[in-house]
Amino acid sequence: MLLLLLLAVLTVTTAAVPVIDRLPGRWTGWTLAAVLALAAVPVLAAGPGLWAGGAPVEAHLPWMPSLGVGLHLRMDGLAWLFCALVLGVGALVTAYSAGYFPPGRRTGFYFLMSAFALAMTGLVLADDLVLLFVFWELTTICSFSLIGLSGPGASRPAVRTFLLTALGGLALLAAVVLLWVRTGTTRLSEILGDTAWTQDTAFTTVVAALVVLAVFTKSAQFPFHYWLPDAMAASTPVSAYLHAAAMVKAGVYLAMRFTPAFTDNPLWGPVLITAGLTTAVLGALLALRRHDLKELTAYSTVSQLGFLIAVISVGTPQALIAAAVHTLAHALFKATLFMAVGVIDDRTGTRDLRELGGLARAMPVTAALSALAALSMAGVPPLLGFVSKENVFEALLDIPHAPWAGPLAAAVAVAAAALTVAYSVRFVYGAFWGGRPTRTGDDRPREAGALFLAAPVVSALSGLVLGLGVALLNPMAARAAGDATGRTAEPHLALWHGLNPALGMSAAALLLGALLVRFTSSGERLARYRLPPVRGTAVFERVHAAVISAGVRTGDATRTDSPTRHLAVPFVLIIGFAAVVALAGPDFGPPAGPTSRPLDWLPVVLVAAAVLTAVTTRSKMAALALVGLAGFATAVWFLFLGAVDVALTQLLVEILTVVVAVLVLRRLPAGFHRVRPSRTAATAVIAVLAGAAATAGAYALTGRREPSAVSAHLLDNAPADTGGTNVVNTVLVDYRALDTLGELTVLGVAGLIIIAVLHSAGLTADAGERPAVSRTNPVWDADSNTVIMRTVARVLIPLLVVWSLYLLMRGHSAPGGGFIAGLVGGSAFALAYLAAPSASVARIRLAYPAVIAAGVLTALLSGLLGLADGSFLRPLHADVPLPWGGHYHFTTALVFDVGVYLAVVGVMLTALNQLGLPRPGADAAEASPTAGRSTATGGTR
Amino acid sequence: MTLALTIGVLTAGAVYLILQRGMVRIVLGFVLLSHAANLLLMSAGGVFHRGAPLLGRSATEALADPLPQAFVLTAIVIAFSITVYMLTLAATGTGDETEDAS
Amino acid sequence: MTGPLRRALRITWFPFFYGARVVASSFQVARDVLTPGSAASPAFIEVPLQARTELEITAIANMVTLTPGTVTVAVRTEPPTLWVHGLYTADEHAFFADIHRMEDYLLGITRRGGAPARTADGEVSP
Amino acid sequence: MNPVDIALLLLGASMVVAVGRILVGPTKADRGAGSDVVFFGFVGIVALLGLRLDSDALVDVVLVCTLVGFLAALSLARLVSGGER
Amino acid sequence: MTPLEVIAVACAVAGSAVFAVGALGLVRLRDFYARLHGISISAALGTALLLLGLLLWFPSPANALKIGLALLVQLATAAVGGNALARAGYLDRTPVTADTRRDDLAAADPERHGSGD
Amino acid sequence: MNPVLLPLLVALPLTGAALLAVFTSRTAVRLLLPATAALGLAGGLALLGATGGGGILVHQVGLWPAGVSIPLAADAFSALMVTTTALLVLVCSLFALATGEAERRYFAPLVLVLSAGVYGALLTGDLFNLFVFVEVMLLPSYGLMAIAGTLRGLRGGRTYVTVNLLTSTIFLAGVALVYGTAGTVQLGELAGAAQRSPAVAAAMGLVLLAMAVKSAVVPVHGWLVRTYTAPSPAVTALFSGLHTKVAIYAVYRLYAVVFEGQASLLWIGLVVFTATMAVGVLGAVGETTTRSILVFHMVSQIGYILLGVALFTELGLMAGIFYLVHHMVVKASLFLSTGAVEHVYGTGDLERLRGRARGEPLLALAFLGAALSLAGLPPFSGFVAKLTLVTAAFDAGRWTVAAVAIAVSLITLMSMLKIWGSVFWGRPPEPETETGAESGAGTGTAATATAVRTAPPRLRTALVLPAVALTAVTLCVGLGAEVLLDLSAQAAAHLLDTSTYVEAVTNR
Ligand code: NA
Ligand code: NA
C-alpha cells in the first residue's frame, strides 16, 4: 500500500505540474522538492524495519492480467537504498533548480524531472520484469527530453544519447522476454529466487550478455561511456540528478539485482570487471584532461561508475556492500559537485578552468562544499568516499576466479583512484585557489544566495556526516547486499580497519595522486597530449550515417514512379508460385468430363490472332481494335459456355470501352513508345511464362469436381425462391444482391472520380494528329456531314431506349436485367454524343452525378425495404392484378435493378460528357486557319 | 483444355502489354487480363454443362453453373469501371507516358 | 393507281429493287476481288441531289454507301450534294444514272408527287 | 462436318484477314476498315452460333450486337479523323 | 432437318461465303477507298443473308421482329459507318491509288489547299 | 445487437455518400461527413459490445440458406477492426475538414464509400463478396489518390491503380480457382479445405499471394512506398490505416479458416515478414521527407503485424491483432501530425523544417508520443504490442525473428528521431527568401505556394486535435492495455479454433 501510494503521489504530482507551474516565482521547484522530500519520509521510516530483518514491503495492482504482467512492487534492502537515493537527491536537486533557473515557467522541465523521479522510483521498486523495463525506458525518455529541452544545440546529443540507451533498453527487453518465456513468470523475485534456469549455461550466458549490454549503456561503461559527457548539453540540475546520482545508477542497480543469477556465469564476472576497470581508468584519465568543469565532472562520473561495475562483478556480499556504500557516496559527492559547477557557471558565466581561478575568496561556501565533495571523491578520510573506496579495494582483492585476478584488479583500481585524486585536485584547486583570479573589482563574482546553496550544502555535509558515522550504515549495507546476493552479508564499515592492504592501497592512491598533481600540473600537461583519435560520438555518427546510407540504397531498389517495375514483381512471384506448385506435383484428380469441343478452337484462334497482333502493333488504334476483337472472342466463349447474359454484358462493355477509349486516344500520340529490344525480350519471357502458368492453373484447378451444391440449389429453387427463371439474374438481384450493390457502387464511384480527377487535373492538350485536309473543303463541314448520323440516330436512339427498358423489365426471366439494360440505354446516349455536330451540342445537360446517386439510393432503398421481411436486400413480392386480367409478378428486385440501370446510365453520361469535352486548343485552331495548315503539313505520315 | 489455352494466351498478351511503357498499353493489357480472369471464373464452374441457365427452356441437367456467370457479370462491370477511370488518367497530366526515359 | 397505293407498292417493292441493285454491284466488285487484275477506275465525284429534306439526303447517301462500288464521302445540305467515291466511274453517264435511279425511286416514296423528271444526261428538267 | 461449321470457318478466316489489315494498316483508315469487318464478322458469327448451338437466346445477342456495332463503327471513324466530327 | 432449316443453313453458308469475298477485298483491293466497297459486300449482302438464315432457323413473330430490327440496324451501321469511315479517311488524307481519275472534293474547296490526291 | 443490422454498416455510409454526391454544399459536407463517420464508430462500438465476450453475430443477407446467401459475420476481430476503422475515418475526416480538403469535389462521398467498402470487407464471410468490397474500397481510393491534381499525385495515382488492379485481378483469379476446386466461396464451407485438398491449397495460395501484394510485404512493397507519398496527408493517413490493414485482416482470417493455421507453411511467412520488417525500416531511415519516412516505415510495421499469423500461436495471434489495431491508430496520428505541419508550411522536407516544437508544443507532443509508441516504447500501446509480439516469437522458439524484431525497433526509433530532430527540434529556420515549394508537397492549398515562411503561421487547433486525439488513444491503450489485450485474445481464440466461427457462418 505504501509503495502504491508513493507511486500514486509521484504520478499525481507529475500530472499536476502544469497546474503547479502556474505558481509565481520559483515556487514550482520548491513545491516539487517538498513533495519528494515528504515522499522520502515514509521510505526512510521503513528502513529500520527492513534492517531489523523485516519482510520486504510489497504491493500489487493488476495491469495486464492476460499476460500475467502486473504492477508488482517490492521494497527490500537494495530497493530501499536506491529509492531513498532517488527521492533524497531528487528533493535536493529540484530545490536547487528553483534557485538555478531565473523565475518563470518551466513546465516541461519540472514535468520531466518529476516524471523521472517517478520512473526511477518505479524502476527500483518494480518486482515485475516488464514493469522494470517500462520504468527503465521511461527514464531514458525523460533523459532524452530533458537534454533536448535545454536548447537547439542539444538536440543532436539528445538523439545520440537516446539511441544508445535505447539499444541497451532493447537488450534488456530481450533479456526480460527470454526470462519470462523460460520461467513462465515476470516476477523478478520469483525468477531470482529460483535460479534453476541458470543451470542452462548457454541460455544464461545469452541473458547475461543482454543484461550486460543494458547495464553498460545505461551506466556509461566502456565502450559506451561517451554518451555521458555528450549528455552534458543538458542543464546542470539534469546532469546532477539524472547523469550523476540517479539514472546512470539504474545500470548499477540492475547489475546488483542480477548478481545471484549471474555470479557463476563465466561471462558475467570477467566482462564486468574488465569493462569496469577500463572505464574507471579511462574515465579518470579523460577527466584529468578537461578544462570544462562540467565535462570533468561527467568523465569523473564515468570513472566512478566503472568502479561500481567492477566491484559488483566480484559478486561476494562484501563486494556488494562496497558497491552499495559507494553508490551512496558517489551520489552525494557527485550531486554536490555538479550543483557547485552550476553555481560557478551562474556566478561567473563560465565553466572553463582556463578562465577560472581564485574563486575561494569570493565564494567561500561554494569553495568549501566543493572541497568536501572532491575530497570524498578522492577517498580522503574521514569522508564517506574514503570508506567506500577502501571497501571497493578490499572487495577487488578477493576476486574468487583466479589468484592473480585480485591483485591485478586492485592495482588497476589504485591507478584509477590515483587519477581520481588528481582530477579532484584539478577541479577544486583550479577553480577556487589556483590560476588567475576570475575578474576582480566590482565585476568580481559574488557568492550565491542561501537558497541556491542549500541543496549542495546538505549533500556535501551528508558525505562528511555519514563518513564520520559510517558504522551507522552497517545494517543498511548488510540488508542491501544480503538482498542483492541472497546471502548473508557481514559488514564492518568503519573509518579505521587497522593496517590492512586496503589502507595501503588508499594511501598509495593518495600518494600517486599527489605525484600526478605535482608532475602534470594537475593534469594540465596531459591535456596537451593527443589521445587516439577515436571519439565515441564520431563512431556513433559514422554508424548512424552508414545505417542511413544502407537505407537509401534499400529505398533505391523501389525508387521509380514507372508502374511497370512495380507490376513486374507480382508477375514474377506468381510464376514462381506456379512453378513451386508444379514441382510439388500434387494430384489434383482427373477431369470430371470432356474439357473441349472441336468448335472451341474458333474462339481460341480468334483470341490468339487478336492477342498476337495486339502485342506487336505500334498503332494505338490497331491495338484498341484488336483488344476489342479479343473481347468479342471472349464473348463467343461465353456463348459457348451458356452464359448469354455475360456475353451480352461483355459485348456492351467492350463497345463502350472503345467509345471511351476513342475519346482519350484522340488526345494522345497515335503510336506507342519504342522499347529497347532487351526489355522486350525480358517482357516476352515473363509474359510467356505467366501465360503458361495461367494455362496450367486453369487446366489443373478447374473442371475436376462435380457440380457444386450451390449450383444445384440455384437451378432447382430459383423460380420458387425468387419468381425468376433467368437464374443468373436471380443471383444478381436476389441471392447475391449484396455483390451487385457493391458492383454498382463501384461503377458509380468511377463516375464520381472521373469528374473529380478531371476537375483537379484537367485533360491533356490534344496530341492527336490534326486532320490534314483544308478547312474549306466540304468534307470538313461537320454540320452538313453529320446529317446522316443525326438522322439515323434520331431513329435509333428511341429504339435503344425502348429496347433497354424492355431488357430491364424482363431480366428476371430472360437475358437482360439492370446492367445490360443500363448499358444499352447508355449506348443511346453515346450515340447521341457521337452523332452531334459539335461537342458543345453533344453535351447532355443532365445532372449525371445525381443520376448515379439516384441509382445507388434506389438500390439501397430496395435493400432497406427488405428489412420489412427480415433482411437487407431481401426481395419483397407482390402480385399486381392487371386491368386486362391476369397479374404481374412484382418484386423489389426489379426496383433494385432500376437502381442499377440508373447508375449505369449516369456513369456513361459522365464519361461521355467529361472525356468528350472540346479539345483544348481546338478553338484557337479554328480561329487561325494557318495553325490548322501548319499542323496539316506536319501531321501526315 | 481449349478454355485453359485461351486463358493462357490472354494472360500472356496481357502481361506483355502491362509491362510496356505507356498508360494505354497498360490499360489494354488489363482489359485482356480481366478477360482471362473472367474466363477462369467460367472455367471454375466446369465446361461440360454448357446450357444457358434459363429455366423452363430446356432440361435442367445440362445447364451450366449459374454462379460463376453471376460472378463474371459483377467482375466485368467492376473492370469496366476501372478501365474507364484508367483511360481518364491516361488523358490527364503527362498524358500517356509512364516513364521518364526508356 | 392513286398516290398512296402507288407509294405503298413502291415501299413493298423497295427491298427487291434495292436488293437487286446491291447484288448486282456486289458481283461487280466481287469479280475485281476474286479475279486477277482490276476493271476499276476510281474517282471522287460530286453528285448534286434532288433530295431536299434531311431524311431524303440521309436515305440516298446511305443507299449509295450500302451499294458496293459507291461510297458517300461527304455531304452538303445547302444545296444538297453528295461527294461519292465511285469504283467504276469510267462511264460517268452510267455512274450518274445508277445514282439517279435510286434517288428517283426514293423520292417516289418520300414525295407525294414522286421524283421530278430528268433530262437524258441526268439533269432535272426546269 | 456440319455445314454451319464451314460457314463459321469462312467467317473466322474473314476475321483473320481483317486482323491482318488492322495490323498492316498502313493508314489509320485502313485499320478502321479492318475493324469494321471484324465487327460485322462478329455479328455474323453470333448469328451462325444461333444455328449451331440451336439457342434462340442468341437472337437477342445479335440484336444487341448490331446496335452496339453502330457505336463501334462511328467511334472508330472518329478516331481515324483524329477526333474531328 | 426441315426444309426451312435446310434453307436456313444454305443462307448461312451463302452469307458467310459472300462475307468472305468482301473481306478478301481488304487484301485484294488497292487502296483504302476501294476496300470500303469490299466491306459493303460483307456488311450488306453477307450479314443480311446470315441474319436471314438465323430467322429461318427460329421462325417466330418475335424473332422476325428482332432479326428484322437487327438487319435494319446492321444496314444502317454499314451505311452510316461506311460513310463516316470514308470521310474520316479523307480527312486524314489517306492516299489514293495513282489511277484515281479525279477529286471533286478538292475542286469544291475554295482554298484548294491540301486536297486528297 | 441484432445481427440483421449488420448490413447497415455498409448501407448507411453508402447512403451518406449518395446524398453527398448530390448535395455538395459546404454545410452538407460539414454535417453529413462527420455524422456518418460517427455513426460508423457507434456501430463498431456496438459490435464490440456484442462480440467482446466471445460471441459471434451472423446474418445471412437476404435470408437465403447458408451457402447460397452471402453471410456477414462479426466476431471480436472484425468488431475491433470495424471500430478502429471507424475511428480513423472520423478523425481523418475531421482533419480533412480542418484543412479544407473535405470540401473538394466528391472528397466526402469518396471517403464514405471507402469506409463502407472496408466495413463490408471486414464483415463478409464470402470470398467473392470480399473481392467486391475490396473494390468498393479501392475505387474511391483511386480518386482520392489522384484528386490532389499534382503531377506527383497523378503519377502515384497511376502506379496505385495499376498495382491494385493487378492485385485484384490475381485475387479474382484465386477466388475463381477456389470455386473451381472447392465448389464454394463461402468461408465457413471452406473451413479446413486447404488442409484436406492440395488443389484448394494451391488456389488459396494465389489468394494469399494477392493479399500479400496488397499488404505490401517485401518484395512487393515498392508500390506502397511510391504511391502513399503522393496524396494529401489526410488521405495517406486514411489509407495507411485502412487499406493494407484489410489485406492483413484477410490474411489472418483466411489462413486461420481455410488453412486452419497449417503449421508446415508458416516458415514462408516468417521469412517474408521478417525481411519485410527489416527492409521497411531500413528504407524508412534512408528517406528525407516526413511522409516518405512514415510510409516506408509502414512496410516494416506490416511485417511485424503479419508475424502474428506466421507464428500462429495463441500469443502470436493475439500480439498480431493487438499490433494491428495499435498500428492503425498510431500511424494515422503520425501522418496527421506531420501532415498538419506539411499543410501549413507547404513541405514535408526535413531539410526545410526545423524547430517546430517551439511554436507548436501540443502538436510536437502528439508526434513524439506517437513516434515513441511506434518505436515500441512505454507507456504507449506500441510497447505492449512489441512486448507481446517479441514474447510470442521467443515463446515459439523463433529467436531470430524475435531478435530482428527487436533490432528493427531501434532503427524505427532512429527514423522517428530523424523526423523529430529535423522538424520539431533545432533552431527555427532563419527567414528564407525562397518561395517556390516543390510540386510534390501536395496539399494544393494556398499554403503550398510558399515554402517555409518568414513568420511561421500558427496551426489552428482543429488541425492539431486529430493527431492529439489519436496519440491520446495510443497512450490510453498503453496504460490500460488489458482491454485491448483481452479483445485481442478473444479474437485470437476464434482464429485458433475456428469451429465457432464456422458453425455460425454455416448455420450448423
Ligand atoms: Na458502298
Ligand atoms: Na531539418
Could you report the average pLDDT of chain F, rounded to the nearest whole number?
91
Name the chain pair whose interface involves the most residues: A-F, 120 and 131 residues
Largest sheet of chain F: 2 strands, antiparallel
Order of helices and strands of chain E: HHHH
Query: In terms of quaternary structure, what is this?
Result: heterohexamer
User: How many angstroms separate the termini of chain E?
Assistant: 55 Å
Helix content of chain F: over 70%
Based on secondary structure, the structural category of chain E is: mainly alpha
For the report, how would you describe the main beta sheet of chain E? none
H/I helix tally of chain F? 20
In angstroms, what is the radius of gyration of chain E? 19 Å
Domains counted in the coordinates of chain F: how many?
Answer: 1
- The structure class of chain F reads mainly alpha
- The separation of the N and C termini of chain F measures 21 Å
Low-pLDDT residue spans of chain E? none
Explain briefly what this protein structure is:
The complex is a heterohexamer of chains A (941), B (102), C (126), D (85), E (117) and F (508). With 85 residues, chain D is mainly α. Chain D is 85% helix and 0% strand.
Task: Describe, in plain words, how this protein is organized in 3D.
Chain C: GO terms for molecular function: monoatomic cation transmembrane transporter activity. The complex is a heterohexamer of chains A (941), B (102), C (126), D (85), E (117) and F (508). With 941 residues, chain A is mostly helical. Chain A contains 39 helices and 6 strands. In chain A, strand 2 (62-64) and strand 3 form a beta hairpin. In chain A, helix 3 packs across helix 21 (474-485), helix 13 packs parallel to helix 19 (405-433) and helix 30 (727-735) packs across helix 31 (737-761). Chain B is an all-alpha fold. The model of chain B has no long low-confidence stretch (mean pLDDT 91). Chain C has one domain. In chain C, strand 2 and strand 3 (80-86) form a beta hairpin. The longest helix of chain C has 32 residues, at 3-34. The interface between B and F is medium-sized, with 28 and 25 residues. Bound molecules: sodium ion (2 copies).
